[in-house]
């Protein structure tokens, strides 16, 4: 099943869920998907215990008053993003038919529920509970949650949104803006890096069964997500700066992690040509030069740099920024 069923449609029990060949799922990938579930159980952490332990060690979370609103807005993206990830992974656990993929999605739903309540409790302790999200980010999460195709949900959440969340964890952890938060982030990072594997191991089988029109539509969906991600970064620019983070550095870290995930997907599919990834990267790079210039320059110079990035691409990415994103061991 690829396209989502109509609301209210009757669905029988999936007696064919063990027929890997029917879904184009290789036995090796199926075993790795099943392993994701078992690893999630083995590596699960007690959210309340970890948070309370960090508070006992470092004291109640405290941030300079001038930085608190910025931290609240930035981690509003994380908190509500975790809820979106919870909803999406729960939907995937319901809609994905192959047994092993269903198990992997189920384990992710469990992780995302923990992430959501821990981040909620942390922000509540900090006195920085967010009211709402900026419109571009809300539209981004809504687009993935309400996507009409399972492949869009998978590529949107596992290979595009999760790497962006990992980039926020990366830059904030390096700043050490607040010790309890710094102690929490490695737990989130380990889980989110593991979640990428569901997309890497099941998306190739799904894409192979898609028509040409569906594949073109999937590429267009990715371009729309990149647009919303960068517009969201513009909205968060003042918050990054208030916390001492260069917005372009944050975007470059996200670009590295996202490109690494998508590159691994193409490798899993056995594709030698990286043209789809190159086009996506050039589009994102061009948009970044227009929306997030490196310095205070004229609109004309922004557009010139944007056109150059579209034509020639950007400098090579520092792959060490994405070292946690990898294909799971066989």
Uncertain regions: pLDDT < 50 for 5+ in a row?
none
Structural class: mainly alpha
Tally of distinct domains: 1
Shape: globular
Q: Main beta sheet: strand number and arrangement?
A: none
Topology, number of strands: 0
N-C termini distance: 26 Å
CATH superfamily: Ribonucleotide Reductase, subunit A
In angstroms, what is the radius of gyration? 20 Å
Question: What key phrases describe this protein's structure?
Answer:
mainly alpha, 330 residues, single chain
General description of the model:
The protein is mainly α and 330 residues long. The protein has a single domain (24-322), classed as Orthogonal Bundle (Ribonucleotide Reductase, subunit A). Helices cover 71% and strands 0% of the residues. The protein contains 12 helices and no strands. The protein has helices spanning 27-42, 47-58, 68-95, 99-126, 135-145, 150-175, 179-208, 212-235, 237-242, 247-268, 275-291, 299-312. Helix 4 (99-126) packs antiparallel against helix 7 (179-208) and helix 6 (150-175) crosses helix 10. The radius of gyration is 20 Å and the shape is globular. The mean pLDDT is 88.
Summarize the structure.
The protein is mainly alpha-helical and about 325 residues long. The chain has helices at about 25-40, 45-60, 70-95, 100-125, 135-145, 150-175, 180-210, 210-235, 235-240, 245-270, 275-290, 300-310. Helix content is about 70%, strand content about 0%.
């Amino acid at each position: 099943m690829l396209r989502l069923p109509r609301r209210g449609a009757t669905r029988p029990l999936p007696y064919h869920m063990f027929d890997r060949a029917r879904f184009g799922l290789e036995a090796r990938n199926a075993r790795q998907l099943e392993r994701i579930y078992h690893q999630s159980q083995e590596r699960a952490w007690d959210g309340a215990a970890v948070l309370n332990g960090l508070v006992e060690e470092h004291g109640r979370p405290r941030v300079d008053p001038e930085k608190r609103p910025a931290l609240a807005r930035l981690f509003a993206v994380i908190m509500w993003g975790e809820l979106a990830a919870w909803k999406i992974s729960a939907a995937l656990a319901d809609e994905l038919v192959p047994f092993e993929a269903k198990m992997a999605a189920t384990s992710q739903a469990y992780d995302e529920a923990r992430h959501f309540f821990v981040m909620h409790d942390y922000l509540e302790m900090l006195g920085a509970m967010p009211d709402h999200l900026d419109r571009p980010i809300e539209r981004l999460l809504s687009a993935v949650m309400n996507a009409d195709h399972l492949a869009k949900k998978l590529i949107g959440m596992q290979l595009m949104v999760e790497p962006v969340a990992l980039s926020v964890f990366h830059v904030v952890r390096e700043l050490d803006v607040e010790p309890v938060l710094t102690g929490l982030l490695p737990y989130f990072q380990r889980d989110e890096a593991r979640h990428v594997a569901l997309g890497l191991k099941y998306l190739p089988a799904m894409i192979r069964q898609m028509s040409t029109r569906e594949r073109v539509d999937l590429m267009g969906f990715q371009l729309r997500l990149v647009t919303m991600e960068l517009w969201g970064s513009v909205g968060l620019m003042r918050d990054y700066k208030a916390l001492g983070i260069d917005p372009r550095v944050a975007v470059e870290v996200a670009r590295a992690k996202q490109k690494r995930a998508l590159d691994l997907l193409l490798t899993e599919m056995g594709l030698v040509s990286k043209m789809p990834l190159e086009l996506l990267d050039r589009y994102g790079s061009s948009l970044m030069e227009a929306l997030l210039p490196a310095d205070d320059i004229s609109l004309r110079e922004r557009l010139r740099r944007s056109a150059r990035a579209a034509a020639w691409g950007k400098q090579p990415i520092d792959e060490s920024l994405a070292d946690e994103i990898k294909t799971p061991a066989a």
